[in-house]
Write a structure and sequence with these properties.
Helix content is about 15%, strand content about 35%. By secondary structure, it is α+β, with helices and mostly antiparallel strands. The radius of gyration is 22 Å and the shape is elongated. The chain has two domains: about 110 residues, Rieske [2Fe-2S] iron-sulphur domain (Rieske Iron-sulfur Protein, 3-layer Sandwich), CATH 2.102.10; about 180 residues, Naphthalene 1,2-dioxygenase Alpha Subunit, Chain A, domain 1, CATH 3.90.380.10. The longest helix is centred in the C-terminal third of the chain and has 21 residues. The strands form three sheets. It has a seven-stranded antiparallel β-sheet with strand order 11-17-16-15-14-13-12, with helices on one face. The structure holds FE2/S2 (inorganic) cluster and cobalt (II) ion (CO). The site of cobalt (II) ion has 5 residues, from loops.
Length: about 325
């Protein structure tokens, strides 16, 4: 695991919770390390995916009687990660050193979150989650062969809408962006009242200006709320730092109106993201440059500038240059 204290001491999504079934371990990858997930009812376990005996992947094993059993020689680990049975020596107490590397894990927003460290803060907020007026639709996951900060910065960028998402999220005849404010605080970035012309913002078939407000709560988690006349649409976006150059984006859209079946909305978000992926994967340098002298910045890039400044302030190294 690369030693980036900022990301080590943060929570990261590693799985969609419904995919972690009782009785079957699930493999994931976070910060260049393999992780095995398993559950006993509500209790979620996340360990380094490695049996201390001969280094086999525990995720290839099975869950039985609230234990995880290695597929190779059957070493049996309890929920605390301690080996309690070595089948070749049934009468011998397993050595205390025979234990798994255990991480903190929890289920929230329908995802499994893991941290390898000791975060000061809990899982990042998702204000629409408990707001019953918003209907939530899970989308993704989407793999980017790109750094996490590059993927987040693309999520924060509205000036690409008329070009990358022409006809869907923007119109090349109306590419201009208003002056808006992006504020940095120790907790992140908020960029308010960014106006974007969209051909059909709410499915009514009419073009309109919509207003975006973006909130960055963690180096790799952000959301926006967009509103036009009436309807509100929010999107929550969090990225798993798999490796410096590999990221997985997990998202929810949240809407306080309904005009289409969930499947259609998911298909739309998939299409939009697959428009973004080749663009983001093509960016060089691969790691997001935090030196503001690198690349060119204009007024309309305020959110990105604030994001880069904030990442410098908190000392993020993973995925940045
Ligand atoms: Fe796991 Fe031997 S490698 S029991
Ligand atoms: Co895009």
């Amino acid at each position: 695991m690369l030693n980036d204290p900022v990301l080590v001491n943060d929570w990261h999504v590693v799985a969609y919770a419904p995919n972690l079934k009782e009785g079957k371990p699930l493999a994931a990858r976070l910060l260049e390390e393999d992780i095995v997930l398993w559950r006993v009812g509500e209790r979620i376990h996340a360990w380094r995916d490695l049996c201390i005996h001969r280094g086999t992947r525990l995720s290839l094993g099975k869950v039985e009687n609230d234990t995880l059993i290695c597929p190779y020689h059957g070493w049996t680990y309890n929920e605390e990660g301690q080996c309690i049975r070595i089948p070749a020596h049934p009468n011998q107490q397993p050595p205390a050193k025979a234990c798994a590397k255990v991480y903190q894990a929890q289920e929230k927003y329908g995802w499994i979150w893991v941290t390898p460290g000791n975060p000061r803060k809990d899982v990042p907020e998702f204000p629409q989650w408990d707001d019953q007026s918003f209907h939530k639709i899970h989308c993704g996951p989407y793999t980017f062969k790109a750094s996490g900060p590059r993927a987040i910065e693309n999520f924060l960028d509205v000036t690409h809408f008329p070009f990358v998402h022409q006809g869907y999220l923007g119109d090349p005849n109306f590419p201009e962006i208003n002056d808006y404010e992006a504020e940095i605080s120790p907790d992140g970035v908020v960029a308010r009242d960014i106006m974007v012309w969209q051909p059909d913002p709410d499915g009514s078939g009419k073009g309109a200006y919509v207003t975006y407000t973006y909130t960055v709560t963690r180096p790799l988690t952000a959301y926006f709320v967009k509103s036009s006349e009436g309807p509100r649409f929010a999107m929550y976006f969090t990225v798993t730092p798999v490796a410096q150059d590999t990221s997985i984006a997990w998202t929810y859209v949240a809407m306080d109106y309904e005009n289409k079946p969930d499947e259609e909305i998911r298909a739309f978000e998939d299409m939009i993201t697959w428009q973004d992926v080749p663009i983001v994967e093509s960016q060089r340098p691969e790691l997001l440059p935090l030196d503001l002298q690198a690349e060119l910045h204009l007024r309309s890039d305020r959110t990105a500038i604030a994001y880069r400044k904030w990442l410098s302030q908190i000392g993020l190294t993973f995925g940045t240059a």
